[in-house]
Specification:
Blueprint: E1 10-14, E2 18-25, H1 30-41, E3 47-51, E4 56-61, H2 67-76, E5 80-82, H3 96-120, H4 129-144, H5 146-157, H6 163-183, H7 211-243, E6 249-255, E7 262-268, E8 277-280, E9 290-294, E10 297-299, H8 302-305, E11 311-313
């Protein structure tokens, strides 16, 4: 926030609370974020808030708290965490998760659409169509749906169930029953037809196939997951662009042991620590939240509150 005033520069100190930010990987639904947040809040002196949309955890901890303890605690829940890495302005960021989802979605669409049509349109059912449907559905249920199966296994190992558990169990059950019907039931007979009805009527359970359910559910859920991840990535890119508007360095007042006075030192804003005092001259951007120690000025807070008129701040104000 740039300060516009003819007054002397403000001297401010950062708020007396240490904040640690973690990047969380592996979350697939809001319940995952809730589990991680609950686990972190069990640590003594720690208050955590996990945001599923941004895939980040904001932790308030005592000064000097070892961040490795937080990373280990997240790992115990079945997810991975890391400290944020510096983002270079012109660097190209690969998105392996989004690329993987895109590939799985494309393959599932190509293979699932014929399975759904063969299973629901009697006119397209040629002799042996059910075995062709099985061959097409198998890669969808195994490879394309693998992220759901892997997440289910990881969660079950930690005694938890999530949305992935529901998807994995449903898809696997539909596929295994169809496999049973083809091999041991009457659905594998060449010339068998499988019509679509809007009503429920008694029938031979061993003659019913659900391959279109297994492949169709995988395809639609993958589509939803892909668009969700893509939206989050685009929102993250917009936020990073907004952060580029912030201050890049800050003039910190440090005590000089040789002269016994405080000297002004300009450092990158990433090196600013809790308790540091820094100067904000008229026209400069304010590096971080803090308390005004001395000086008065009019501060432009439009980017925070939307107020177009600069706000007067003085000693003791935030």
């Amino acid at each position: 926030m740039p300060a516009h005033s003819s007054h002397p520069p403000l001297t401010a100190t950062t708020a007396a609370a240490e904040s640690i930010e973690l990047e969380i990987a592996g979350m697939t639904c809001a319940s995952c974020a809730a589990r991680i947040e609950k686990r972190l809040n069990r640590l003594e002196g720690v208050e955590a808030s996990v945001n599923f949309a941004t895939e980040k955890a904001h932790v308030a901890a005592p000064v000097g708290y070892d961040a490795r303890l937080l990373l280990e605690e997240v790992g115990k829940t079945g997810y991975s965490a890391s400290l944020p890495q510096p983002v270079h302005k012109h660097s190209h960021h690969a998105e392996p998760e989004l690329d993987s989802l895109r590939r799985r979605l494309m393959v599932s669409i190509v293979l699932s659409v014929p399975v759904i049509l063969l299973s629901m349109v009697s006119g397209l059912q040629f002799p042996g169509w059910q075995w062709v449907a099985l061959a097409l559905a198998t890669p969808v249920v195994t490879w394309a749906a693998w992220p759901f199966h892997a997440a289910t296994w990881a969660n079950l190992r930690h005694g938890a169930v999530t949305m992935d558990t529901l998807i994995s169990v449903g898809v696997t059950a539909a596929y295994l029953w169809s496999l049973y019907a083809l091999i041991l039931g009457g659905a594998g007979v060449i010339g068998m037809t499988h019509g679509f009805e809007w009503t429920v009527s008694p029938s031979d359970a061993g003659g019913n196939l659900y391959l279109e359910v297994a492949s169709g559910v995988t395809m639609f859920v993958l589509a939803g997951r892909f668009f969700e991840v893509r939206s989050k990535r685009r929102a993250g890119a917009a936020l990073r662009a907004l952060l580029e508007l912030g201050a890049k360095d800050v003039a910190v007042l440090r005590h000089d042991l040789l002269t016994g006075t405080r000297q002004e030192t300009r450092i990158p804003v990433e090196h600013l620590r809790v308790g540091d005092e820094f100067l904000v001259r008229p026209g400069e951007k304010i590096a971080t939240d803090g308390i005004v120690v001395s000086g008065t000025s009019a501060v432009d807070v439009s980017t925070v509150t939307g107020e177009s008129v600069p706000v007067e701040v003085a000693e003791g104000m935030l």
